[in-house]
Amino acid sequence: MKRSFKPGVRIASNKRHYTIRPTILTNFNTEQSSDNYISSLCKRNLFREALDAFELLQKNTNIKVKRSTYAHLFSACSTLRSLRHGKIIHNHLLSSKFQPDVALQNHILNMYGKCGSFRDAGKVFDEMSERNCISWTSIIAGYSQNGQEKEAIILYLEMLKSGILPDHFTFGSIIKACSGLSNVGLGKQAHAHVTKSEFGSQVIPRNALISMYVKFDQIDDAWNLFSRIESKDVISWGSMIAGFSQLGYEVEALSWFKEMLLEGIYWPNEFIFGSCFSACSSLVQAECGEQIHGMAIKLCLERNNFVACSLCDLYAKCGYLNSAKKVFYQIERPDIASWNAIIAGFSNGGAETEAMSFFSQMTELGLNPDDVTLCSILCASSSPFDLKQVKQVHSYITKMGFHLYVQVCNSLLTMYAKCANLLDAFHVFEDMSNLANLVSWNSIITACLQHKQARDVFKLFKLMLVSYINLDYITSRSISGACAEVSSLEMGNQFHCYSIKNGLNRDSFVTNGLIDMYTKLGSLEIARKLFDSMENPNVISWSSMIVGYAQFGYGEEALNLFKSMTKKGYKPNEVTFVGVLTACSHIGLIEEGLQFYRNMELEHQIVPTLEHCSCMVDLFARAGLLKEAEDFINQMPFEPDVLIWKTLLSACKTYKNVNMGKRVAENILRIDPFNSTAHVLLSNIYASEANWEEFARLRSLMKTRGVRKNAGCSWIEIKDTIHVFLVEDLLHSEREKIYCMLDDLWLQMLDAG
């Protein structure tokens, strides 16, 4: 006996409730059968209502379904990716004793493939007595679209062996599989197969090829294909615009977006808008993004999750955080990607508090963060007073099981290091155990170098070699930096040999690190040999050599190298001019130094920094032009630091300018009341003038304030061990032998007169 349903009645079934809408029910009552009713729902794209109605009717009636209605229902399941409904309908088909033809079996195959149920799709495919091109394409597409690219290619080869020729849809799926495997050779073979077939000019395989070449970073091949498509569709335009945007051709992406609009055939979809916003973001062009945003609003796409995510990223990167927030709150149902976009935007924009606020809102709404969310939150914590916040996030990570995600642990490790907590960074690294990858090793090594723990860098380097982790240019730069930090030439030579043996020296970044290391260690000849061996030295290479020559007093060599650099068309940077000004200072070229300083901004568009100003003060001070040095400091566009004042104070001592020395020392002590250098230099100035009263007063003040002169320090490297010596050192393990040797040398000096 059939049940009758009343409009608006809620019907319970297996703890779920279905509301039969009055409008639909009215249509149902006027239909000849339930089969026609369900079919009509599918034809009107009311897929959810059709599936719910079928599920309800098949439980409460002996519903009979036509072949065409089954096809409609399976298509509805494919569209909604509803595997549960698909299995219900498939079971109903099997129990009905209805023998599906190849067309209906293809619908079933397509449904299981779209829903990601490979086992069910494979079972249906294996049981098919007859297979056509659509059958093979459906099973191949199912595997290709769900990350099973190897299986898709194996099936494609079996299809060819069976004598069935692929069509343009098959080619689209198999090209996507080649793209997913990042196999350029296989992709080019598929391209050749498409070209030889009758579908070579079809838009579907060409669009797939464009996307594939974009993924392979081969923008020229993608462009050649795009330019040969006679009837481009919106996917063709979207693929090409996305390719330009992703591969760093942002201006071209926006130009072709404009070209698409001028052609006037297709309106951009959400993916094209996303690519354009991404291009504007990379170019930091908020104004251009705002214009495209206006078009998205006109096309009613501004609330689309994909569009809104890209917009949030654009506005945040351009510093328009309020605009990013407004866009986010316009999204009706923000998904995890939307939350990640707004959290990352505020984190990277320096608004740590608001980023954490968004994170709290997200969790309060019952949404579980993923690894991307947590990495973004950790990026918002980068100063010591955020350490408590980092520890709270760390506890959450452990509680939710994200400590097993290597990228989350790497972010956590980096944040502890940035928050001046190297001990906790080491704990995170140790807890990672076998999870640690190259990024993890680089993070902890870089953290040690930043915290002046060069010895730990060498220990980690040895452990890294034992763990069979291959170094990259970042690791190499950190290790060469550690060698320079401890002034260990022998260790630097050993690492240089290691880099040659393992081919790391072919990377210009590594070679630049070695040049920088050798210049800091005073081995200018080796540094120059490395520099001369480079085929294409960049501005970093030139600057490292120029600074190295300048710092060790080879001013003429530094300036000659600078002339060679500019003659060859290399554009100098801020560091280059630090070297040039230092060189002028060391060899007393006052006018030349002033000219270089003026030309920095006029000819090279480099705004002088505090470091450049410090070089200029040193230039005047070394030449005894103390008044000019003081005037230069007073007209600087920013506040002088202690180093600049100390440079001038040292010159005041050299040239015995007591009055200026007093003024300069007062400026230093105003910034740093406990600065020992200022006290000592000023007292020495008083002593040189035989002003013992002021000398005694200043020494007494030092004692009252607890200011002590930093002990002089020197070191020597013997057999991979660095021995450090302080003035009146009583801590060295071989101090007795050292002092005996000093006494012996003193006696020899007396004997020699």
Characterization of the model:
With 753 residues, this protein is mainly α. The protein has 42 helices and 4 strands. The strands form 2 sheets. The chain has a two-stranded antiparallel ribbon. A two-stranded antiparallel ribbon has the order 3-4. α36 (610-622) runs parallel beside α38.
Q: What composes the largest sheet?
A: 2 strands, antiparallel
**Number of E-type strands:** 4
Supply the helix-strand structural class. Answer: mainly alpha
Shape: elongated
Q: Unreliable stretches, pLDDT < 50, 5 or more residues?
A: 1-32
Query: Roughly how many Å apart are the termini?
Result: 129 Å
Read across the widest sheet, the strand sequence of neighbours is 1-2
Give the overall average pLDDT. Answer: 85
Radius of gyration: 36 Å
Helix share, percent: over 70%
Number of helices: 42
**Estimated share of beta-strand residues:** under 5%
List the helices and strands and how they pair.
Blueprint: E1 10-13, E2 16-19, H1 22-30, H2 34-43, H3 47-60, H4 67-80, H5 83-95, H6 102-114, H7 118-127, H8 133-145, H9 149-161, H10 168-181, H11 184-196, H12 203-215, H13 219-228, H14 234-246, H15 250-263, H16 270-283, H17 286-298, H18 305-317, H19 321-329, H20 336-348, H21 352-364, H22 371-379, H23 387-400, H24 406-418, H25 422-432, H26 438-450, H27 454-466, H28 473-485, H29 489-501, H30 508-520, H31 524-533, H32 539-551, H33 555-567, H34 574-586, H35 590-604, H36 610-622, H37 626-634, H38 642-654, H39 658-671, H40 676-688, H41 692-705, E3 713-718, E4 721-726, H42 735-751
Antiparallel strand pairs: 1-2, 3-4
